[in-house]
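Milestone M4 deliverable, item 7.
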Amino acid sequence: MKKIINTPNAPAPIGPYNQAVLTGNTLYTSGQIAFDPKTNALVLDTIVAETRQVMENLKAVLAAADMTFENVIKASIFISDMNNFGQINDVYATYFDADTAPARETVEVANLPKFVNVEISMIAVK
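Output delivered:
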């Protein structure tokens, strides 16, 4: 059975999807972009600020399912410019212990929703 996870501490979905779905002990998050849930404005000042907002949104979704980044087993990062990889990776790394970090792929794409620079989704297990 699936349980829908939504929290006001992360941006509301902008389409026919939910922030996350929990099935059994596995959580599948939707991709998060850098919407500030308090203002509904995109945080695009710098790639560092944008990535931090994405990670904070994911942190809120994980918390709504009683999980943390320690529960994450897989991350998918979509970026619009591979030249931003280093800065995105630096921010991402602050949320994980290098020895127990999840599996991950990073893919450059032509465009992302709202023409943002980074979108991240995760799979986590209790």
